[in-house]
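Budget justification aside, the reviewers requested a transparent look at the raw inputs and outputs of the sequence design task funded under Objective 1. We therefore reproduce one unedited record. The lines immediately below are the structure tokens for a 155-residue chain.
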């Protein structure tokens, strides 16, 4: 698991070259640890590099960022969404809680849209329905860029 955390940390830092200080490197490692732990806790496990791509696309790893429609945190969760109601308003920006619920939300769409239709469930994470959008293409492009070994056409 340590080598996976190190690889995910490296992916985060590659996406954020401005994170040069030791404090920012430690933050990247903290995020990587949470991403690996939470992505492996669901069944079937999700690829942590996919979660990194989503977080980068959604928030550029800024935990307190707010979206135009009210989404908050690293994974841009809707505070009044069905999966986030269990989190109090202040905890939506908590890094671990936000990632856990975001992964749960992604897992929900994976099951609803069909595990074999990754582009569809990635799009549903963003759009709220099982319909392919440009969002999935953008995430896949970023994912293939940061995943060690890239994508082989099936990923």
């Amino acid at each position: 698991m340590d080598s996976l955390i190190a690889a995910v940390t490296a992916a985060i830092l590659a996406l954020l070259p401005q994170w040069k200080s030791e404090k920012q490197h430690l933050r990247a490692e903290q995020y990587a640890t949470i991403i690996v732990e939470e992505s492996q806790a669901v069944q079937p496990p999700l690829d942590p590099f996919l979660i990194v791509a989503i977080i980068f696309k959604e928030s550029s790893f800024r935990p307190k960022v707010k979206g135009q429609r009210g989404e908050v945190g690293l994974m841009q969760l809707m505070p009044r969404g069905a999966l986030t109601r269990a989190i109090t308003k202040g905890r939506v920006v908590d890094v671990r809680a936000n990632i856990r619920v975001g992964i749960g939300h992604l897992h929900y769409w994976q099951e609803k849209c069909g595990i074999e239709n990754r582009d569809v469930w990635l799009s549903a994470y963003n759009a709220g329905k099982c319909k392919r959008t440009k969002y999935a293409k953008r995430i896949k492009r970023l994912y293939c860029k940061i995943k060690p070994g890239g994508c082989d056409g099936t990923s």
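The chain has one domain: 2-146. The mean pLDDT is 89. Computational costs for records of this kind are itemized in the attached budget.
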